[in-house]
Amino acid sequence: MSTHESVYIRDDVIRLGQLLKLAGLVDDGATAREVISEGRVSVDGEVDTRRGAQIRPGQVVALDGQEVTVVQGEPEIDVPW
C-alpha cells in the first residue's frame, strides 16, 4: 500500500536527505544516508543516490511505497470559525 502526502518547505530548494527527515520518512540523517545510498529513494520516478540532491517544489520523492510532493509555502489551515 502506498501513501501520498504534501511536504511544505519555506525555501525554493531542499536537500534530499533533509526532505526525508522533514517528511518523517526516516528518523535521522544516518538512516537517510543509508536508504539513499541503497537506491531505495526515487525522485520523479528515477532512483537518486545523491543525499545532497536539490529537490524543488513540484517534485515527487518516494521511499518504500510512501510518496511526498514538495510544496513551497505554508500549509493551509482550516479555521473553525
Notes on the protein architecture:
With 81 residues, this protein is an alpha+beta fold. The protein has a single domain, classed as Roll (Structural Genomics Hypothetical 15.5 Kd Protein In mrcA-pckA Intergenic Region, Chain A). The protein is built from 2 helices and 7 strands, in the order E-E-H-H-E-E-E-E-E. A 5-stranded mixed beta sheet has the order 1-7-6-3-4, with helices on one face. Strands 2-5 form a two-stranded antiparallel sheet. A hairpin with a 2-residue loop joins strand 6 (60-63) and strand 7. Helix 1 crosses helix 2 (29-37). The radius of gyration is 13 Å and the shape is globular. The mean pLDDT is 92.
How would you sum up this structure in a few lines?
By secondary structure, this protein is α+β, with helices and mostly antiparallel strands. 20% of the residues lie in helices and 33% in strands. The strands form two sheets. Strands 1-7-6-3-4 form a five-stranded mixed β-sheet, covered by helices on one side. Strands 2-5 form a two-stranded antiparallel ribbon.
